[in-house]
Design a protein that fits this description.
Number of domains: 4
Strand order of the largest sheet: 13-12-9-10-11-14-21-19
Distance between the termini: 41 Å
CATH class of the largest domain: Alpha Beta
Strand content: 15-25%
Number of strands: 22
Radius of gyration: 25 Å
CATH architecture of the largest domain: 2-Layer Sandwich
CATH superfamily of the largest domain: ATP-grasp fold, B domain
Number of helices: 14
Structural class: alpha+beta
Shape: globular
Helix content: 25-40%
Length: about 475
């Protein structure tokens, strides 16, 4: 397939633009003037003779009106049907639908709806549209509610073009678990495992992994709940059904009626190319041809989001021009990125620079491999989350799985590096030290008994053992 990239003025030289066969500028720097500009996107498709449109996983990807406009223009929409998106794409309507099919849902209501559930504090004010933690505010007291609602509405309108917000009871210290599904639009749905993504800041994920080893006997009921939600709307394409798990109950959270940022961990563990599957399903292929059966997990995968943010400053955005950029290259390591050296990180768009993903035989091997991959990652010119992610991966809490969605926001979040860790460049330096010290050691070994000299210890003793 030949590909067409649409871009804003300031993205004219972006990596996704130069990677495609054809590119079309669709407007100015702001999202409203470019990536949210439906007429401009459709005009670009018409001008280039495009036949399909893949919505990606941002901006208009869950906009049912956009999906309808794409189909009305004669294009194939590579995503769920507009009807399914209206039911599940909005968080409010998805909650109502989950209740209808008897899936546990936390109490909440649309702001202004007097017939909804009573307010229970603490609670979250949440945007019905979009994701990524935008339009979300925690409220602990009734007197703070109005300000939180106004702030959430403003952010939701700017980010998604929809100011609808609702309240939801805040579940304290849960795990965030999501189930990957594929549907054919005929009521047939296959589950492609689950992901765990509780390491978050401001309700936005930083680390995701598959599978979730801590689910145990809850895995099959969780998968069944996700399948029920999707099959009941005759879901088509890839989607994610998200839950909050308190150790006993999986509470329905929302449906992302699109591809997820963290889809690579599922691809590596379950051996399914989700984008290829989306294209096949959009072209009418039967689900049994795309994925003959629910695949079994093979090993473990972890993804770290490399963001242009400063963890020392409360994860404030860190715009600027990228200097040296070096991504890790090693067996079992995959990097999905949209930037390179010399690119400008703008304040207009999401701060995500890249996703570093590793795959290994088990979770501990994957954890150690990711630590090494982060050690080998270099991004200069802006502050990033690389070092903070490495600290989290090295922590006892992450190694043992003793964390929740709230852990990273604690004052002493993820303290205590465990001793077994790869040292990246230090391993190379130790090897160089061995080459330098070996002759001295040999000489000392020959003369130590008669000359009183002490043999130097092997430098390899200073390097922790790692797998």
């Amino acid at each position: 397939m030949r590909t067409v990239a649409v871009h804003s003025d300031i993205d004219a030289n972006a990596l996704h633009v130069t990677s495609c066969d054809v590119s079309v500028c669709i407007g100015g720097a702001s999202p409203a003037a470019s990536y949210l500009n439906i007429p401009a996107i459709l005009a670009a498709a018409a001008a280039t003779g495009s036949t399909m449109l893949h919505p990606g996983y941002g901006f208009l990807s869950e906009n049912a009106d956009f999906a309808e406009a794409v189909e009305a223009a004669g294009l194939i929409w590579v995503g769920p049907t507009p009807e399914a998106m209206r039911t599940l794409g909005g968080k409010l309507s998805a909650r109502e639908h989950a209740r209808r099919v008897n899936i546990p849902v936390l109490s909440g209501a649309r702001v202004g709806d007097e017939t909804g559930d009573p307010l229970v504090f603490p609670l979250l004010v949440k945007a019905s549209a979009g994701g990524g933690g935008r339009g979300m505010r925690r409220v602990d007291r009734l007197e703070d509610l109005d300000d939180a609602i106004a702030s959430a509405k403003a952010e939701a309108l700017a980010a998604f073009g929809d100011a609808t917000v609702y309240t939801e009871r805040l579940l304290v210290a849960p795990r965030h678990v999501e189930v990957q599904i594929l549907g054919d639009g005929q009521g047939n749905v296959v589950v492609i495992g689950e992901r765990e993504c509780s390491i978050q800041r401001r309700h936005q994920k930083l680390i995701e992994e598959a599978p979730f080893d801590g689910l145990g006997d809850a895995r099959l009921p969780l998968h069944d709940a996700a399948r029920t939600v999707a099959a009941s709307v005759r879901y088509r394409s890839a989607g994610t059904v998200e839950f909050l798990w308190d150790g006993h109950t999986a509470w329905f959270l929302e449906v992302n009626a699109r591809l997820q940022v963290e889809h690579p961990v599922t691809e590596l563990v379950y051996g399914v190319d989700l984008v290829r599957a989306q294209l096949q399903l959009a072209l009418g292929a039967p689900l049994t041809q795309v994925v003959p059966h629910a695949p079994e997990p093979r090993g473990h995968a972890i993804e770290c989001r490399i963001l242009a943010e400063d963890p020392a400053q409360g994860y404030l955005p860190s715009p600027g021009t990228l200097g040296l950029v070096r991504w890790p290259q090693a067996p079992g390591v995959r990097v999905d990125t949209g930037v390179r050296a010399g690119d400008v990180v703008s304040t207009h768009y999401d701060a995500l620079l890249a996703k570093v993903i590793v795959h290994a035989p088990d979770r501990e091997c994957a954890r150690m491999r990711m630590i090494r991959a982060l050690d080998d990652t270099v991004v200069m010119g802006v502050a990033t989350t690389v070092e903070r992610l490495g600290d989290v991966l090295r922590s006892e809490a992450f190694a043992t799985g003793a964390y929740s969605t709230e852990t990273l926001s604690a004052p002493d979040a993820m303290p205590g590096a465990i001793p077994e860790r790869p040292l990246g460049l230090a391993v190379v330096l130790a090897a160089a030290a061995l080459a330098t010290l070996q002759p001295a050691k040999s000489e000392a070994g020959r003369t130590g008994a008669s000359g009183g000299e002490t043999a130097l210890p092997s430098p390899w003793q200073t390097v922790p053992r790692w797998t």
